[in-house]
Amino acid sequence: MRLIDTHAHLDFDNYNQDREEVLNRARKIGVEKIVNIGADLEGSRRAVKLAEKYDDVYAAVGIHPHEADTVNQKSLAEIIKLASSSRVKAIGECGLDFYYDNSPREIQKEAFKKQLNSALELELPVVVHSREAAAETLEIIDQTGDFAKKLIFHCYAYGPEEIEEIIKRDYYAAFGGLITFKNAQPVRDALKKMPLNRILLETDAPYLTPAPNRGKRNEPAYLEYIVKKAAEIKGISAEKMGEITTENADRIYNF
Ligand SMILES: [Zn+2]
Ligand SMILES: [Zn+2]
Q1: Where does this protein hold a divalent metal cation 1 (predicted)?
Q2: How far, in Å, from the CA of 154 to the mean position of ligand 2?
Q3: 129 among the known binding-site residues?
Q4: Which pLDDT does position 144 carry in this prediction?
Q5: pLDDT tier at 152 (50, 70, 90 boundaries)?
Q6: What is the pLDDT of residue 46?
Q7: How far is the centre of ligand 1, averaged over its atoms, from the C-alpha of 207 (Å)?
Q8: Partner of 62 for a Cys bridge, out of 69, 92, 145, 189, CB 3.0 to 4.6 A?
């Protein structure tokens, strides 16, 4: 099976002891590409370095809403500079997180707008992180520009109603370990509604480890459990799900 992990954070310290083995385990189950996502400026630098080191690792550069107060002219200029590497395939992750509220909401909104504008300028797709802020996230995107086919709601954590808005605007949604969690029926119901050509799979490693490995550190090899569960929910074979979501990832990240 050919698979693409569209969202992972292998630059984190969690992998300092065994990064090579983590990559090899992923390759062994058919993960042919991994997009390593920058979560802050330093993480974005590390993401580009990893992508330059490994042929099958690519990068996205951006600043997570948790770190929104670090988005300023200087950090944005560096994000844009990093994005000039041919290994960088998207801007992100950026967005709104009103669950943790680690940065004030107004500052999160400003930081998100700025990064959306950078993506437009650079003609790159955007990886959006949105938690407990569906309406506000959509509002800001709508106000900023046309992102049809060029935007991913990563770690889709909303329900079947919110997915209608995403379908209407022709965005992608990336599904991960959550779909294996007992208490995440609304996410599964959303996946049921999502057209096959707009579904992506991701691990968000080291977070959100899928069943049956919950409690352990997540890693791209566990995409195996996610593709199986997604296939079961959509009523197709895991092979077909792998094939379609890999084509989708190839398309949005322009591999
Ligand atoms: Zn995220
Ligand atoms: Zn992430």
Answers
A1: 7, 9, 93, 204
A2: 8
A3: yes
A4: 98
A5: very high
A6: 98
A7: 9
A8: 92
Domain that holds residue 38: 3-252
What pLDDT, on a 0 to 100 scale, did the predictor assign at position 147? 98
| Residue 66 assigned to a binding site | no
Residue in the structure block whose two tokens are 């400026």 = 41
Q: Using pLDDT thresholds of 50, 70 and 90, give the confidence band for residue 166.
A: very high
Contact at 8 Å (CB) between 216 and 203?
Answer: no
Ligand with smallest separation from the Cα of 156: 1
Cα(228) to ligand 1 centroid in Å equals 22
Crossing angle of helices 73-82 and 41-53, in 10° steps, is 10
Q: How many domains does the chain have?
A: 1
The backbone region for 193, taken as left when phi is positive above 0, alpha when psi lies in -120 to 50, beta otherwise, is: alpha
User: The CATH number of the domain where 194 resides is what?
Assistant: 3.20.20.140
* Ligand 1 mean position, distance from CA 91 (Å): 13
Average pLDDT value for residue range 24-34? 98
- Tens-place pLDDT, residues 88-115: 999 999 999 999 999 999 999 999 999 9
- 9 annotated binding-site participant: yes
Q: Which residue has the tokens 């997604």?
A: 230
